[in-house]
Design brief:
The chain has one helix at 2-22; strands spanning 30-35, 38-43, 46-51, 55-56, 58-59, 67-72, 78-83, 90-95, 102-103, 122-126, 132-137, 148-153, 160-161, 170-172, 178-181, 203-206, 211-214, 222-228, 231-236, 243-247, 254-256, 265-270, 275-280, 283-288, 293-297, 299-300, 319-324, 330-335, 338-343, 350-351, 360-365, 372-376, 383-387. It is mainly β.
Amino acid sequence: MFERSLTPVWLLITGLLVCSQVMADTRLLRFPHLHEQLIVFSYGGDLWTVSDQGGTASRLTSHPGKELFPHFSPDGRYVAFTGQYGGDEQVYLIPAEGGEPVQLTWYPATGPLPARWGYDNQVYGWTPDGERVLFRSQRDAWGSSTATLFTVSRDGGLPERLPVPVSGAGTFTDDGSKLFYSPLFRDFRTWKRYQGGWAQSLWLFDLEAGDARQITDHTRTDRDPMWIDGQGYFVSDRDGKLNIYRVDPDSLEVTQLTHHSDWDVRWASASVDGRIIYELDGRLRIFNTRDNSDRAVDIRVPDDGVNRRERTVAVADQVTGARLSPTGKRVLFSARGNLFNAPVDEGVTRAITHRSTAHDREMDWSPDGQSVVFVSDISGEEELYIAR
């Protein structure tokens, strides 16, 4: 009788746990943009859309290459993005309700680039009239630091270079006469609270007059420029964490708008109605500049989990380091986060570490060749280990 009375309760608790896991919000949502009631973002290298109230997302793209940096057109009919469909990164256009992407740029992209350099042909938005897509390209540049901004018609054709000499992120003012931008690009570097010569400041460039004036000036980073109703908005770590700020272009007065202390605000972008959507701790949030409200958006991405399935991967073309043994007969190398001991001539290759839960790297032999020392983050922190 006692056991029988507990059975419905146990089933209810089990059901609630299963339901909560199924409906749990998804993390690692990146590069979001917002138009009216619809959000577009990148997850797992594909583009997804979802209501600005949250819920279950719908897949917009599915190519094995990455689709990144989506931006709605001002009228919400299209999404411009950076796609890897042809082996490199180009600017594409797709209807917001889904369909076949149309390629807008064709000049060979530079890359693949080191992770800290980001991507070539990175989409940053649109001209205010919705006729042209704004993107950053390394064409005609001798390196990532000398790339600049271009626009290309949504109907295709040759891109046009903007008159700024070099540029990182940028956006147009409301009437399209000026460009609110950063001359430096280090958006993918991991230098938190950096105060050196690559700390970004934001400038306002008059496209007709051809001159620029500095709008923000701080020893730390000011990035992700946005323009709403005649005011500049941006993200800065001047208080220790990346948060959203506003700057008046006339008085240069800066006001902090969000006060997150645990996680950094990442990849903030502005909608035409004055809202800012951003990533925080892998989730998305919306800050409304009209009333200063800030709320989380709970999103579930119904991914099929194919990329999480265990599989065997050939790593011969993914070697990241090598060390010759003291005898010169074996070589130690790392690939995809694992370490291998291979013969110089013929013989058997041995896996020293064989796991998908750690990044094992920076290895070397002991003087007698009997042990290997390496760095691993298996514990959650990077530490030294020895394998014999």
